[in-house]
Here is the input.
Amino acid sequence: MLLASGCLLSKIMQFQLGLSLKNIIIALLLNRSCRFIPLVYLRMCRCICIPPQSRKKKNRQNVCRNISGVLSGEEYNVVHYSDKDLYYDTDGSLAFWVVTKPLLATDLLEDAFNAFHKGYELDTKGSQKKAITEAMANIQNRYITDAMTANSLGNFSLSSKNFGNAIRCTEHPAINRLDTLIVFYTGLTAYYAQEYDRALNYLQRAMNMGFTQEGSAYSFLAETYKALGQTNKVGPTLIEGFTKYPSNQGVLVSLINFYIDSNEDPSKIMEYIHKAQENEPNNESLFYAEGNVWSNLNNFDKALESYNKSVAVNPKYVFGYISIGQTYYNAALEIQNKAADELDDRKYNAMLEEMDQLLLKAIDPFEKVFVISDNPDILTDIAVYLKIIYYRLQGKDEKYTPLYEKYKAISEGR
Here is the structure.
């Protein structure tokens, strides 16, 4: 089954035998030097790599059935044809389609790659180098498109395979420009496909080339080691990742879980943080990282202390203010949950008053974010917190109603 999105399959379904001048030249080059390269390869190359001209006539398609389906958590309206399934979003727009009966029983991208590779080998004078390089780049992009489509469909094995084929294109001497991000994605999708040997190969390769996705690669590499039974490498990998990227939440959580699973004290992480703080006392992210550790260990007071240190070092450190507000907000939610089980009215009301006080304390750091940040995504997220807080407080004082309306509009993009 061939998966695709965008215009790839329309190119394939509209397969044509005509050749452009460029492909005629390549065909002549190939046929002059090597008679065993079938001409259909070049025609396949055109089908995949060169957009076909628009047509006045369209082939009729017979609809077999129309059903609803859920894929990767998303709901689609699925229209089944004799050769493909079309997936429509709930608003009626075409999201993607799956070819269930390919036009040809061959891998067109593979054939195209082989044909242009042979053309590259035979083009000893380099007269077609530019055309072949462009074609290889187009094939690479098609593989990436297929990989992303397969990933969105939850077919991680096929996604990893297509990302790997894209790497093969970038490694070809016609391009010779390896994309570390694609190498990482090849390993990441292999990890999700539980193909751990393949995941290990590509994750290590990406990291050796300097790509770590701001530290997240260490978490996936450690989990891959764990899945392969190489448990002696899990701890050192996470410690290295945390030392280099102390503010990466994924690495931090993985390291805490590692210590818990090993029956060790998770606060041992503080040794690495404090050593780093001694070397970089003005690095606000190290105090932020310390706050994250205490937060994950449910130590409210120490988390707040560390987050406040981060903004003391750098008064414009937006993530410090966000975490201070979230810490107060989460503490308020915890009290609310406990209050729900309290049967004594006096204690219940006291708990609600404590909750409101914590929400009031969350306002100032959240409001500070709007002063120092212009990131629309951050501001929208923080507006949601403030909207909820002011909605709660307006029941006690009408002065909070305009503020509720203000942040409700921001959170809704108005």
Remarks:
- Residues 1-66 have pLDDT under 50 and may be disordered.
- The longest strand covers residues 63-71.
- The two ends are 44 Å apart (CA to CA).
- The CA atoms of residues 170 and 178 lie 5 Å apart.
